[in-house]
Design brief:
alpha+beta, 4-stranded antiparallel β-sheet, 4 strands, binds cytidine-5'-diphosphate, binds magnesium ion, nucleoside diphosphate kinase activity, cytoplasm, Nucleoside diphosphate kinase, Nucleoside_diP_kinase_AS
Length: 141
């Protein structure tokens, strides 16, 4: 194997709907088959303060209270994925935010019929990846 660029890292959450629906293996399999590497992974149940820190950019949105209730509603799987252009590649694999509109073949397009319960979070830029990895896995950014 040869790579021309150093591996990039991204923060991914398999949200509580993914755990409840028994889709953790399916979703991890998609990331692994793509060639991404799992660098860290933990099953965790978060409280409201942790949700506020993770979704800091969204806490003033009218839809934030139900999102907060959803992400704190049960265990989720937090992980760090690495690989060439991991941030962009992972966002492409998960698809657009609204599962009803996400393209077939993407995770949200294949498994979600919701704009909220859309199974996966993934960092959207190098800056957010660093912030989110620091938040979820301190010392591993
Ligand atoms: O997750 P992504 O970056 O694709 O979307 P976002 O616009 O950053 O929104 C973050 C999360 O908020 C989404 O993944 C949804 O779970 C939730 N959301 C929601 O509950 N209601 C909306 N109208 C929009 C987003
Ligand atoms: Mg986002």
């Amino acid at each position: 194997m040869s790579t021309t660029t150093p591996a990039e890292r991204t923060l991914v959450l398999l949200k509580p709907d993914a755990v409840r629906r028994g889709l953790v293996g399916e979703l991890l399999g998609r990331f692994e088959r793509k060639g991404l590497t799992i660098d860290a992974m933990e099953l965790r149940t978060i409280d409201g303060a942790a949700a506020d820190a993770h979704y800091a950019e969204h806490t003033e949105q009218p839809w934030y209270p139900p999102l907060r209730a959803f992400v704190t509603s049960g265990p989720l799987v937090a992980l760090v994925l690495s690989g060439d252009e991991a941030i962009t590649v992972t966002r492409a694999l998960i698809g657009s935010t609204d599962g009803r509109k996400a393209a077939a073949g993407t995770i949200r397009g294949d498994f979600s019929l919701s704009n909220r319960e859309n199974l996966v979070h993934a960092s959207d830029s190098p800056e957010s990846a660093k912030r989110e990895i620091d938040l979820w896995f301190p010392g591993q950014a």
